[in-house]
Design brief:
alpha+beta, eight-stranded antiparallel beta sheet, 19 strands, binds flavin-adenine dinucleotide
Length: 465
Amino acid sequence: MATAEVTLDQAALADLEASFRGDLVRPGDAGYDDHRRIWNGSIDRRPALIARCAGAADVMSAVRLGRRTGLPVAVRSGGHSFPGLSVWDDALLVDLGRMKGISVDPERRVARVQAGVLLGEIDHETQPFGLAVPAGIVTSTGLAGLTLGGGIGWVMRKYGLTIDNLLSVDVITAEGEWVKASAEENADLFWGVRGGGGNFGIVTEFEFRLVPVGPTVMAGPVFWEMKDAPEVLRFYRDWIADAPDELMTIGVLRRAPDLPVVPRELVGRQVIAVAACYCGAVEDGERVLQPLKSFGSPVLDLCMPKPFLAHQAMFDPGFQAGWWYYVRSCDVASLEDGVADVCAEYGERIESPVTSLALWQMGGAVARVPHGETPFAGRDAGFTFNINGNSKTGEGFEAEREWARGFWDALRPFHTSVYVNFLGEEGEERVRQAYGADVWDRLKAVKRRYDPDNFFRINQNIPPG
Ligand SMILES: Cc1cc2nc3c(=O)[nH]c(=O)nc-3n(C[C@H](O)[C@H](O)[C@H](O)COP(=O)(O)OP(=O)(O)OC[C@H]3O[C@@H](n4cnc5c(N)ncnc54)[C@H](O)[C@@H]3O)c2cc1C
């Protein structure tokens, strides 16, 4: 167990205090425990100092303190890293959570967004204009970390990944210098940050292209009993084979959650659901989704016209901060029978009310960007698996973890790539697998140019050597 009692260089700290606009929080200070906590309650790490930055100038000062003291530097935006790579024992934690600036230009369809912004916050600012940054599916997720790994979500099949809509970034380098990166300026760095995570610097601000979405969409889940999973998965596979780009779906296996919209008799029963979002005219969505709604014997149908904002918050109750989470992930090429059968088998074994499988339909615009144009390497994946072995507290966590490991192992023959933002702490070879050999070598070259000492190493690390 770490003690968080590393001795800080007092002179260096005093210099930082003199120029810092945000808050500096140390062990023993009020708020220390609140600020070191992240979304995953199974992570309990004690940084030596938390620098809650108010802006890019504070980030520059914090990086220079890290240089001067030799403290390892962890970076946190939304704190949703599954393996907790946004907080580290005895480290300097550069916390960007206060940096909430959002500026939307609805005429140019461009938004500038600071690193501490969460998905629900950017949607709140863009949806009044019927616009969105294509991003993820739980409102409390940080837009920064999500973007730096790629960014998959409800409108990606129509508009591409979050990185496909990124126009520029402001970055603080390992030397504490400010640089801008875009297609025109520092193009190698701009390539690297579109999937290479926080390996090259701290991104303080992002500029995104906005796309038209909603504000009303035809969306939501249709549920069946888990015993129907083999047939539902086969129907689902065949039905989406020629789906339009407007349609995005996520297959979900879990126990029916205890929510007001779920009939009492269904709560706690094992179910399979297909959640959909049609990013186009509602009438077209109703037509496209009719086969799903009428397949077999659904036990609950919540797929209907609704505000995109409401749909974006749909999964929030099932992924609350502080619960214990363990995630395994892989991509597969298709939902062939072997894959469907493993899903059905492990679906029947779900015990915890908060354990789930999310099976993401890929393709569409994501797949039309050529391999290598960005570091995100799973563009030809058929489906991305997010296997979540979760419990509300530490009690029972071990068993859920074993379920997730067993599920992932059973899928091994079908693994292709893996999405870097869904990786756990799985070692260098897995990070390499997430990118593929050619992209990995190119990422290392960018790392050598911008961070040759591996100053930014508390992440899904791309070592320079
Ligand atoms: C509930 C939940 C739902 C999710 N849903 C989706 C989804 O729909 N789509 C999807 O693509 N992913 C999803 N993810 C995965 C998500 O993209 C990653 O967990 C992502 O890292 C979260 O970003 P964050 O800012 O919250 O992360 P943090 O935990 O703050 O950081 C994650 C990593 O990124 C680095 N980092 C963060 N900010 C910066 C920065 N500004 N500059 C440099 N490095 C930085 C950190 O050092 C750390 O290594 C989800 C995760 C969770 C927990």
